[in-house]
From TrEMBL:
Function in brief: Core subunit of the mitochondrial membrane respiratory chain NADH dehydrogenase (Complex I) that is believed to belong to the minimal assembly required for catalysis. Complex I functions in the transfer of electrons from NADH to the respiratory chain. The immediate electron acceptor for the enzyme is believed to be ubiquinone. Core subunit of the mitochondrial membrane respiratory chain NADH dehydrogenase (Complex I) which catalyzes electron transfer from NADH through the respiratory chain, using ubiquinone as an electron acceptor. Essential for the catalytic activity and assembly of complex I.
EC assignment: 7.1.1.2
GO cellular component: mitochondrial membrane
Protein's recorded name: NADH-ubiquinone oxidoreductase chain 4
EC top class named in words: translocase
One Gene Ontology molecular-function label: NADH dehydrogenase (ubiquinone) activity
Cross-referenced InterPro entries: NADH4_N (IPR000260), NADH_UbQ_OxRdtase (IPR003918), ND/Mrp_TM (IPR001750)
Residue ranges of every copy of the NADH:quinone oxidoreductase/Mrp antiporter transmembrane domain listed in the record: 109-399
Superkingdom assignment: Eukaryota
Length: 457
């Protein structure tokens, strides 16, 4: 399994580099389907745990590495205009290769300091993609927000990593961190240390009240920036949180309820905000905050149902949200507007686009047969086992998610179109290909969901 993962990453990097001069989207598709065959042919026993001093390969890291490779290849497919117009294509591809390397290094590393270095390295290519190929001058402000939020929140994490090195003389992710908090005489100080340890991951996810950088970054980023932000970079926070929570169960009981309740209330507030937005891209970006609130709730319960549901939600949201951003970009490239008041009547012009949008919206509201349904059921079980009163808020948040998703679909697809929408008649096969490649894994992963269930250690 280890050789297969390394070979897939290596082939992807070579392919992305070659596509700079000769863009052949079907060659990228070969690598995309290689991801499917790699997952389907791998026995579950090989995906449990392969560990060394620096590298870890388990179900969680392998699934997120495959998601990273898959989405970066999707980014290449969706960047036809940048490559054909030669809009600094070489630099653009270099940033994508650097981003993929930093993501793979983050998910491979079993050392806290190495993970922190790769975690911060992923900010640089993302910042260049947002500021270099964004659409409006406000992208500079969005880049500043993005850097300040993530860097300031990750400084306490660095302090705690150095403290771990001083206490344990080892930075391995597989040492129990409970002793660091148990022997603190002051219980409140132990809770503060735990918050410092997980704050960077909560901002990265992002948790409600630390989410203000995300809509700004999404609105000003090009389609590839939005895809990688929603698809993989948010998952870095969930991955780090999962690695920490299992080792600090004592402190989780002290302060976990605070963040869990904040995420539940944040889901409802974000749902109400989405019901009054008229920007398609902003609506998809805010829905990411609501879905990541579900993930935070599942992880902070500390039970295996929540951790498994959180991982499945991260994978399904990475594919579904990336597909929605691709669809919004297809509309924007034709009409030069993301407003719901101008984008109407698409079903009358190109029904096949409406079908893709409908299936993506179904996955966004956790409708069967998408993997989102299984993940949300797991998360409901975990939250119910944590506290039955939470079930007063959890269904309301999910219901509001369905409300604003149907609001987005009905406003953009139905209604009377005007002449600019007729440019949809000139659609490209590659765009339908991208939408299909997002929909296939979402709806077929549920047939082999044992690959995503984690055996925690």
């Amino acid at each position: 399994m280890m050789k297969m993962v390394f070979s897939l990453v290596f082939l992807s990097l070579i392919n992305i580099k070659l596509e700079v001069t000769y863009f052949k989207w079907y060659s990228v598709s070969v690598l995309v389907f290689a991801c499917f065959f790699l997952v389907s042919l791998t026995p579950l026993s090989e995906m449990i745990k392969i560990l060394s001093n620096w590298v870890v390969l388990d179900t969680m890291s392998i699934s997120l590495i495959l998601l990273s490779v898959y989405l970066v290849l999707m980014m290449v497919l969706s960047s036809i205009n940048i490559l054909n117009l030669n809009n600094f294509a070489n630099l653009y591809m270099f940033m994508m290769v650097l981003l993929l390397l930093s993501l793979v290094l983050s998910f491979f590393s079993s050392n806290y300091l190495l993970f922190y270095a790769a975690f911060e390295l992923s900010l640089i290519p993302t910042l260049f993609i947002i500021m270099g190929w964004g659409y409006q001058p406000e992208r500079l402000q969005a880049g500043v927000y993005f850097m300040l939020y993530t860097l300031l929140a990750s400084l306490p994490l660095l302090i705690m990593i150095l403290s771990l090195s001083n206490n344990f003389y080892s930075l391995s992710m597989f040492n129990s961190l409970t002793n660091l908090f148990l022997f603190e005489t002051n219980q409140y100080f132990a809770g503060l240390m735990f918050i410092m340890l997980i704050l960077a991951f909560l901002v990265k996810l992002p948790m409600y009240l630390t989410h203000l950088w995300l809509p700004k970054a999404h609105l000003e980023a090009p389609v590839t920036g939005s895809m990688i932000l929603a698809g993989v970079l948010l998952k870095l926070g969930g991955y780090g949180l999962m690695r920490i929570v299992g080792k600090t169960y004592f402190s989780l009981n002290m302060v976990g309820g605070l963040f869990l309740s904040l995420s539940l209330v944040g889901m409802i507030i974000i749902g109400l905000i989405c019901c009054r937005l008229n920007d398609l891209k902003a609506l998809v970006a805010y829905s990411s905050v609501a879905h990541m609130g579900l993930v935070i709730c599942g992880i902070l319960t500390g039970v295996s149902w929540g951790l498994n549901g959180g991982l499945m939600m991260m994978i399904s949201h990475g594919l579904g949200s990336s597909g929605l951003f691709c669809f919004v970009n297809m509309i924007y490239e034709r009409i030069n507007s993301r407003s719901l008041f101008l984008n109407k009547g698409i079903i009358a012009v190109v029904p096949v686009f409406t079908l893709g949008m409908f299936l993506l919206c179904c996955s966004n509201i956790s409708a069967p047969p998408s993997i989102n349904l299984l993940s949300e059921i797991s998360l409901i079980i975990s939250v119910y086992s944590y506290d039955k009163l939470c079930m007063l808020l959890f269904p309301l948040g999910s219901f509001l998610g369905a409300v604003f998703t149907f609001y987005m679909f009905s406003y953009s697809q139905h209604g009377k179109f005007y002449l600019a929408v007729q440019s949809f008649l000139f659609n490209f096969f590659s765009e339908l290909h991208i939408l299909t490649l997002h929909l296939l894994p979402i709806n077929f992963l549920i047939l082999k969901n044992d690959l995503i269930f984690i055996l925690f250690y």
